[in-house]
Structures are given as structure tokens and as C-alpha cells.
């Protein structure tokens, strides 16, 4: 993601090049954080090192956030569920449980099992509602 970022050289640092570099770096960081947040089985590891020159005042903050996210991602990866977005992980687990129930369903179902499934469906609905509410700021047109 950051292979095309080039730090502005001496004379370029006073013109338009530096603000473009800063915006590009922030965009790359946000994309990287989104990749870390969404569980994905195909990726083998999350690169945690950006080449940001420490001469910029904002560089320490981004590197610090990146290190914290990388540490959390590694903790989650060791537990067997990479990704930081808890709602996505919980939705996946609930979905798998409901699929297993549907695959093995026999009529009439046990009352205890039906209550368990009803609780899972309610929890899944709550998670979907929270995710929808969390996405509203992204869909609102200014």
C-alpha cells in the first residue's frame, strides 16, 4: 500500500508536495487499519512497519497507533481469529451456529434448542443494528 509514497525532498517540503504526502500517508494508514479490522482468512500476516520519516511531528503518533493496532492484531491472530472488528467476528460465529442448526434441523425441534436459536437470532439482529448505526456517518451526505 505504501510503495508509492515518496517523502518530499528539501525544496519540495515548502510547496504542495508535503501536504499531498501527509494526506497520502494518512490515507494509507486508514486503509491499513481497515485491513486489520476486517477478518480475512486469505492473508498470511499484516505488515506493521511503515517507512515514515521521524522528522515530521505527526509521525510519532501514527507509528504509535500502528504499533498498538499491530500488537492487537497479533494477539487476535494467536487466538485464531485475526481482525479487530469484534462485530464481524461475532456475526461470523453466530452465522455458523445458525447454519449448523438449519442443516441438522428435524421437526419437531426441542424447546431448549429453539430458545437458544431465538437468543442467537436476537443477538445477531442487535449486532446488525449496531453495525448499521455505526455506518450512518459514512453514508450521510454533507
From TrEMBL:
Localization terms from the record: Membrane
Pfam family, one: ROH1-like
Ranges that cross the membrane: 20-40
Assigned protein family: Belongs to the ROH1 family.
Single GO cellular component term: membrane
Upper taxonomic lineage: Eukaryota, Viridiplantae, Streptophyta, Embryophyta, Tracheophyta
Coiled coil spans: none
Membrane association type: Single-pass membrane protein
Primary location recorded for the protein, binned into one broad class: membrane
Name of the protein in its database record: Uncharacterized protein
Keywords for the protein's UniProt record, in alphabetical order: Membrane, Transmembrane, Transmembrane helix
Organism, scientific name: Salix udensis
